[in-house]
Amino acid sequence: MRDLRTYVEAEVELGPGLTVVAGPNGAGKTNLLEAAYLACTGRSFRGASDRELVRRGADAGHVSAEVESGAAGALSVSAFSVGIQPPDRRRLRVDGNPVDGLLDHPARPRMSVFLPDRLALVKGGPGLRRAHLDQLLVALRPSAGPLRRGFHEALRQRNALLTSLRTRGVDLDRARGELAPWDRALASAAAALTEARAAAVAAVDPAVAERARQLGLDGELEVAYRPRSSTDADELLQALSERVAGDLERGFTHHGPHRDDLAVRREGRPLSRFGSQGEQRLALLALLLGEADALHAASGQRPVLLLDDVMSELDVERRSRLVEVLAGAGQALITVTEASHVPGADADDVGLVEVEPGAAATVRVATVSTEADR
Ligand SMILES: Nc1ncnc2c1ncn2[C@@H]1O[C@H](COP(=O)(O)OP(=O)(O)OP(=O)(O)O)[C@@H](O)[C@H]1O
């Protein structure tokens, strides 16, 4: 990468498994993970703007990643790259050829990100979990993409009609009549989405429970899909028609899968209210690792794990367990202020990137130490 965040220039070689990114606060460890994500997706996992990403004092920044894809014995290597020069659009390329997006490219590696902010998935409101669930659904079953879009389009159109009916002051009977075709479209799209969501959650739940056990989270961890409306299209149609008066009053559809939640529970109790900080952290890790297992089972590919500041609030025993779990979980990058916070960081198969803050918050080259270098 060149001229991104704190980096003037850096080149990093990842190990085949775990790579530890160590350095003091503010050195640029998260920036490095962000650059890896940016190179493979064209996006910042912090939702950063182009101006935030480009190094202060530079006009343009660039990052590229060498990506291996395919099955063992038939691997191919692609070069993904992202050029940023505000105010122009980001320039995305694969093997030098311009592309509109990287997300749909068949060689794109999946990435699973743990950021402290993402604890909101366990602690926060249902909206985040719902969005996460839909992303997981599409990752597990790419053909579910149109299904999700179809539902949101039907919902958007029904809501637009509700607003128009309200503005026109249309009476209830006539409103029901005008809404009927949209109700039918919404109910059938909703039923299909709900069924697909339920199947996705059923596919990840056992893996999440197993990962939680391995990480030493006491008590059975469970993820469960909680649809708040009926999963049957006819019943949902009936429910929509019964709620027309309320919808007209509010000006939007208040019943359907856009209100669902994904429950994360331990021993039947929501972790958001009954979990300690460390337990919530372990639960989020178990969720991401379990989802990675399900993705691996579905596609044969393991997501690259980007784990930022994951060790804080974990005791020594849980840290060791996490490192053991990561040893068999494909490529992972983990940030820590001291490499010694990762038990076994000095093992031969663990890569080490030491990020040193340079003058004026710039880093010339991040060094990577791998087995070959030692
Ligand atoms: N565009 C930019 N140009 C130069 N520096 C930047 C830019 N964007 C962010 N920074 C600097 O990057 C630093 C933060 O980097 P980063 O978040 O990667 O640190 P970190 O090593 O993960 O730290 P911590 O251990 O505290 O989490 C801050 O000092 C910030 O000022």
From TrEMBL:
It comes from the Bacteria. The keyword Ligase does not apply. Gene3D superfamilies: P-loop containing nucleotide triphosphate hydrolases, RecF/RecN/SMC, N-terminal domain. PROSITE patterns: RECF_2. GO terms for cellular component: cytoplasm. HAMAP family: RecF. This is DNA replication and repair protein RecF. The lineage of its organism: Bacteria, Bacillati, Actinomycetota, Thermoleophilia, Solirubrobacterales. The gene is recF.
